[in-house]
Amino acid sequence: MNNFNWDSGFLVDFDTTTGVSKTAKTTQRRLSQMKGMFYDEKHTDKILEKEDPVIYEFYELGCPERAGDLAFGTTILYPGKAGNEYYMTKGHFHTKIDTAEVYYILDGEGYMVMENLKGDTVEMPMAKGQVVYVPRGYSHRAVNIGDKPLILFFTFAADAGHDYGTIETKGYHKIVVEKDGKAAIIDSPRWKEAEV
Amino acid sequence: MNNFNWDSGFLVDFDTTTGVSKTAKTTQRRLSQMKGMFYDEKHTDKILEKEDPVIYEFYELGCPERAGDLAFGTTILYPGKAGNEYYMTKGHFHTKIDTAEVYYILDGEGYMVMENLKGDTVEMPMAKGQVVYVPRGYSHRAVNIGDKPLILFFTFAADAGHDYGTIETKGYHKIVVEKDGKAAIIDSPRWKEAEV
Question: Mean pLDDT over residues A61-81, rounded?
Fold first, then answer.
């Protein structure tokens, strides 16, 4: 699983435009693995009757979860929509919550949707050549609003850990949908319902 | 000095080929600031009689040195030689020595010259589209062996700190020089002398 020597250094390739590596392997996230995360469940089910598209893939290099190490890789988030909601990553908090993450956008366009435990929300527009700084304490989800893959190079503390559960059960307050032919950030219907 | 909000997130641009930012400012390192680091001091002095070239520049965004934050930016290392020794960065240990650093090579070619306190040395060839993982405990110096700028995107723990002193006084065991028209890694004459 881990061919990289984290104690004496190593090289690994990531194409600076496509994010693809010839030596590392990706983990894929398909629509079926994100059931219930897109608000339009009917349309999600409709897609799944025909196919189970890859929504995104990312490289895990097997970095040991040790203090002082840094995990890194690329995420390739494909273009598309479930209903009118753009394809997105699951999103996660870090288990060690006060740890930041750096995302360098190599290609494509989208949003980084962020939210902390107090419910403060921030949406950062992402375009090629921008770095998004995800501050300590903020969960984060990438959304692809373009018509080609969104390519992100990420780095975070190896001992930060990932907490997907919080987001899987509650979702984000804000979602990104297509409205009148362009991207719009709206309140999540799921949160609205919960507040009624 | 610091226009970036490390608590609620921010965007900053770095061209994915040149490393240049329109919003951040660089710190320049000129040859006169690296006196004594290139082994051929005579030739270094000869250059300085005529000019004081910029050897490299890098972006510092003023990241607070707090646990959980990540400092990042680009380094632009120009092509050239002092004597037959290729232009290089000063190189540094992290003050908090067991902290890694991730370098993503956006353009150019060179070597990452690394060395730990035990004297173990590692030289990693760098080319566009490669990531060099600088492991915990290793000081690191970039060397440009090409004929265009070497562009590096770096990330490290914000509280890692920089220790230049150790390298400024002792140098590295290995240096990279041009020999018969190509790059060669050789023992540093300064260390050889010390061992006689």
Answer: 96
User: Does residue A12 surpass a pLDDT of 60?
Assistant: yes
Which residue, among B3, B4, B11, B17, would best test binding to A if mutated, counting the most A CBs under 10 Å from its CB?
B11
First to last CA, chain B: 47
The interface predicted TM-score of the complex, written ipTM, equals 0.95
For B7, phi then psi, to 5°, come to -100, -25
Cα–Cα distance, B111 to B91 (Å, whole number): 12
Specify the number of domains making up chain B.
1
Task: Tell me the residue range of the domain where B113 lies.
Answer: 26-195
Tell me if A131 and B99 make a contact (CB, 8 A cut-off): no
Report which of A140, A148, A154 is spatially closest to residue A58, judged by C-alpha positions: A154
Write the residue in B10, B112, B131 that is nearest to A133 by C-beta.
Answer: B10
Assigned token pair, B192: 């050889």
A196 pLDDT more than 60: no
Residue B164: inside a domain, yes or no? yes
| CATH number of the domain where residue A166 is located | 2.60.120.10
Residue B130 is assigned to a structural domain of this protein = yes
Enumerate residue ranges in chain B where pLDDT < 50. 1, 196
Of A164, A168, A161, A170, nearest in space to A188 by CA: A170
